[in-house]
């Protein structure tokens, strides 16, 4: 279980109402600042980003989702097997924050604490129009075990931090998992026979299968 | 109904946990009635045997000898065989394997008896092969039969063959009088003395005539025993040729095995070096078939022995040694020395392994075979966008041929399993939908995964020796393609028919049809598209129809998804070409656009396609990368059209 030699692959799903800027955030994050031409390789709605954190190679697969309310029911097939989720709201739009709450509730219900969450208040360039209060959002994030960030996709502010934080937490969660799995493996060593049935009986049944 | 008793020997340490969760639980559902998994524990030098039975859905695990012995008495009534007992005080890992094998054979017999008495239709297919780690003598023996087993060699020839070798060197031949296998052993370093021992076969296995050693299940085990133990009863310990003993991996063994009898006269066998009076090999004492040419590049000096560099050139040498290739193909091989064309081999080599059985499929004309290969190649090269990272620019044709040949050879286990599976699933898929409980696509996918895994760990005798590859990824990709060719293709019709009946019966297709008509009339605002994104034009929709039609025509889920990819690329181009358009298609627009296009086309059958792709796409593509995302989006679009329009 040496994660140093292997590339860790994480699936990150982007959730949030339409027009809150989730696509802009991920585009900012993935685009190559020094070479505009690289943008032509971008695909539709799906992006990958390679990272190296402390010598560990990481490949983030970022899944964009449709934010319109009518597509809400499609959520589960997008977020299944996700390691992390970024929930984006618009700080000038109270409804979009309510939508984030709805997603958080659903994710926690469906995926439990396995999934790492980041709540992102976007559009801080429009601070003067803010309707979602900073402390309220941050308290809420804390209460659900998520980390809160403020970003501005327009001004390219705070975006790196979101993904870095999320990735580090996903890595930690992965290490935790492998550690506990290792421990279980160790404590199981004297298991001899996991069976109460006589073998003769079981082998007799194959004829009728 | 068929029952399979399956035995799987894992070459990897500590695999028991893996199989416990993945393989057994999954596969026991349908494919096999009993599964034995042998693996070496990573916590002790012992073997773990997992026995699973699908009837009871239970898993029996026998693990770690010391602990086992403690439990032994308590479980006696459960495991009579063990109490009597095949597992008592194993001395070494090899020994343990021998006993494990014995145990397996006994149980197999028992299962077989039961099944055959229960119903004559039932059939058992058992894979009795075992793949221990390479360090095992058994493994080396197993992979090099063609070197030490020569049924056609007589006593005189055996003596001649062995005369130049150190003591302990041996071959197994067939006694000309008694028609029994016979072990010929060089017993002295100083003289040319060779002793001959008759090998007896009984129901319990084989043993050397006159010895008091318990019978071993097969010849390899018997020989391995006499190789591994000094005072086993023969005048000397048996010795495998040095090169075979020192081989580092299966590929090297395979290389030697390919040489067959010629190995003994090649420079890889130290006899010649032992004599050390020749730089080039002596002419083979055994009359060679006229088709063979003398070995080509054998100019390495003898002191190269044991050096790594020696092995690098082996592949090429053997290829040339062994088959009679036209001159221009030598160049080709030199460019890529690891691969050799199966077709050429089977034509010019007289190795029985490469001669295809005279059946209808094998006797198809060459050009037809060529087309098949072309199809496979196109499979590999088609989804370039997706698999650029996975697939080498030049798909390995030879690897494909080798795999294909192995899987369709009627004399090999794979063919038997696959054809039975297909036959069975044809029946399963045509049954009334209500009676089908488990998702048949899931089971088909699992069977494919299992076949893949088995292929990758299969003993040499089961696969064509020519399949030597240097990249696991290459093999996996090629295998995936071949499996779709062999398994998915004949089942496609049945799968789609089943899905259609399923969606017909629950009214989904009707709902889909109705909803598609509704959405097809939607405008820009109904779809909630961004301002910068416009509705797809007629041309895009017609192009999408072409690609979706192509998708329906494909049987490989990978090709299906590559057609989906084409549709998406077209959608993206549209966005890029719109004045003031974006360079990137946000999911907020992508999903409604995809839904709109599908609705416009009115192709309800795409619902079946989405299920087909989801069910049969290999795990790595279903869970990683773009293919995963687009398969999901496609499915999402159809689910939305089916369920969410009110």
Automatic annotation (TrEMBL), chain A:
Main localization category: membrane
Membrane topology: Lipid-anchor
GO terms for MF: GTP binding; GTPase activity
Record-linked PROSITE patterns: RAB (PS51419), RAS (PS51421), RHO (PS51420)
Places the protein is found: Endomembrane system
SMART domains (alphabetical): RAB, RAN, RAS, RHO
Name of the protein this chain belongs to: Ras-related protein Rab-21
Organism from which the protein derives: Trichoplax adhaerens
Lineage, uppermost ranks: Eukaryota, Metazoa, Placozoa, Uniplacotomia, Trichoplacea
Automatic annotation (TrEMBL), chain B:
Record's keyword terms, sorted: GTPase activation, SH2 domain
InterPro entries: SH2, SH2_dom_sf, VPS9, Vps9-like, VPS9_dom_sf
Cellular component GO terms held in the UniProt record: cytosol; endocytic vesicle
Location of the VPS9 domain: 506-646
Biased amino acid composition, Pro residues: 281-293
Signal peptide range in chain numbering: none
Biased composition (Polar residues): 349-362
Gene Ontology MF terms in the entry: GTPase activator activity; guanyl-nucleotide exchange factor activity; small GTPase binding
Short name of any one Pfam family annotated for the protein: SH2
SMART domains registered for this protein in UniProt: SH2 (SM00252), VPS9 (SM00167)
Gene3D superfamilies: SH2 domain, VPS9 domain
Stretches for region Disordered: 278-307, 349-370
Record GO biological process: vesicle-mediated transport
Domain SH2: 148-242
PANTHER family associated with the record: PROTEIN SPRINT, RAB GDP/GTP EXCHANGE FACTOR
Protein name: VPS9 domain-containing protein
Lineage start: Eukaryota, Metazoa, Placozoa, Uniplacotomia, Trichoplacea
């Amino acid at each position: 279980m040496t994660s140093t030699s292997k590339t860790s692959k994480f699936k990150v799903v982007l959730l949030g109402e339409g027009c809150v800027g989730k696509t802009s955030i991920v585009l900012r994050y993935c685009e190559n600042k020094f070479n505009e031409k690289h943008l032509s390789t971008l695909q539709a709605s799906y992006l990958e980003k390679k990272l190296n954190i402390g010598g560990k190679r990481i490949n983030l697969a970022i899944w964009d989702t449709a934010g319109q309310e009518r597509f809400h029911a499609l959520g589960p097939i997008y977020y299944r097997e996700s390691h992390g989720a970024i929930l984006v709201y618009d700080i000038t739009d109270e409804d979009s924050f309510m939508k984030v709450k709805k997603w958080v509730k659903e994710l926690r219900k469906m995926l439990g604490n396995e999934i790492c969450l980041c709540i992102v208040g976007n559009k801080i360039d429009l601070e003067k129009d803010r309707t979602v209060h900073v402390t309220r959002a941050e308290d809420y994030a804390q209460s659900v075990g998520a980390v809160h960030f403020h970003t501005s996709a327009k001004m390219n502010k705070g975006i790196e931090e979101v993904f870095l934080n999320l990735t580090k937490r996903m890595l930690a969660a992965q290490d935790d998992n492998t550690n506990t799995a290792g421990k279980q493996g160790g404590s199981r060593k004297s298991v001899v026979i996991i069976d109460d049935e006589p073998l003769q009986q079981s082998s007799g049944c194959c004829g009728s299968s | 109904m068929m029952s399979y008793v399956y035995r799987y020997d894992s070459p990897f340490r500590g695999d028991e946990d893996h199989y416990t969760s993945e393989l057994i639980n999954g596969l026991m559902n349908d494919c096999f009635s009993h599964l034995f998994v042998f693996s070496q524990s990573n916590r002790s030098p012992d073997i773990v045997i997992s026995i699973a039975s699908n009837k009871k859905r239970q898993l029996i695990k026998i693990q770690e000898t010391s602990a086992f012995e403690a439990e032994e008495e308590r479980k006696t009534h459960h495991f009579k065989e063990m109490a009597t007992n095949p597992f008592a005080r194993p001395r070494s890992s090899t020994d343990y394997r021998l006993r494990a094998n014995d145990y397996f054979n006994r149980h197999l017999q028992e299962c077989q008896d039961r099944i055959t008495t229960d119903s004559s239709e039932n059939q058992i297919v058992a894979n009795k092969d075992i793949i221990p780690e390479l360090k095992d003598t058994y493994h080396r023996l197993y992979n090099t039969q063609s070197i030490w087993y020569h049924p056609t060699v007589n006593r005189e020839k055996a003596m001649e063959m062995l005369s130049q070798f150190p003591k302990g060197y041996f071959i197994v031949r067939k006694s000309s009088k008694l028609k029994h296998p016979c072990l010929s052993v060089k017993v002295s370093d100083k003289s040319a003395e060779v002793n001959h021992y008759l090998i007896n076969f009984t129901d319990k296995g084989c043993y050397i005539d006159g010895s008091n050693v318990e019978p071993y299940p097969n010849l390899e085990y018997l020989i391995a025993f006499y190789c591994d133990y000094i005072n086993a009863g023969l005048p000397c310990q048996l010795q495998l040729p040095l090169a075979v003993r020192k081989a580092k991996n299966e590929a090297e063994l395979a290389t030697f095995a390919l040489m067959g009898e010629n190995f003994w006269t090649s420079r890889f066998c130290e006899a010649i070096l032992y004599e050390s009076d020749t730089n080039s090999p002596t002419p083979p004492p055994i009359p060679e078939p006229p088709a063979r040419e003398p070995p080509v590049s054998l100019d390495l000096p003898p002191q190269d022995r044991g050096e790594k560099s020696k092995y690098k050139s082996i592949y090429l040498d053997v290829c040339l040694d062994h088959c009679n290739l036209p001159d221009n193909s030598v160049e080709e091989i030199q460019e890529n020395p690891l691969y050799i064309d199966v077709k050429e081999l089977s034509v010019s080599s007289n190795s029985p392994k490469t001669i295809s059985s005279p059946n209808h499929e094998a006797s198809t004309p060459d050009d037809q075979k060529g087309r098949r290969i072309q199809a496979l190649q196109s499979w590999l090269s088609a989804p370039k966008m997706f698999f650029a990272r996975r697939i080498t620019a030049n798909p390995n044709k030879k690897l494909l041929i080798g795999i294909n040949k192995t899987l369709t050879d009627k004399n090999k286990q794979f063919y038997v399993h696959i054809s039975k599976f297909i036959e069975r699933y044809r029946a399963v898929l045509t049954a009334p939908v209500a009676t089908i409980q488990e998702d048949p696509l899931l089971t088909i996918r699992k069977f494919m995964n299992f076949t893949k895994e088995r292929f990758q760990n299969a003993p040499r005798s089961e696969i064509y020796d020519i399949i030597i590859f240097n990249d696991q990824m290459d093999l996996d990709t090629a295998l995936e393609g071949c499996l779709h060719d062999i398994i998915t293709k004949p089942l496609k019709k049945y799968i789609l028919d089943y899905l259609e009946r399923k969606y017909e019966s629950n009214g989904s297709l009707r709902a889909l049809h109705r909803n598609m008509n509704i959405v097809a009339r939607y405008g820009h605002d109904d779809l909630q598209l961004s301002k910068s994104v416009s509705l797809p034009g007629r041309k895009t929709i017609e192009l999408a129809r072409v690609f979706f039609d192509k998708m329906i025509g494909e049987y490989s889920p990978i090709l299906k998804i590559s057609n989906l990819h084409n549709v998406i690329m077209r959608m993206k181009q549209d966005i890029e070409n719109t004045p003031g358009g974006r360079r990137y298609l946000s999911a907020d627009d992508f999903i409604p656009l995809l839904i709109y296009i599908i609705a416009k086309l009115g192709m309800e059958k795409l619902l079946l396609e989405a299920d087909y792709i989801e069910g049969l796409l290999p795990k790595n593509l279903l869970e990683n990368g773009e293919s995963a995302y687009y398969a999901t989006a496609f499915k999402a679009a159809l689910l939305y059209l089916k369920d969410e329009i009110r």
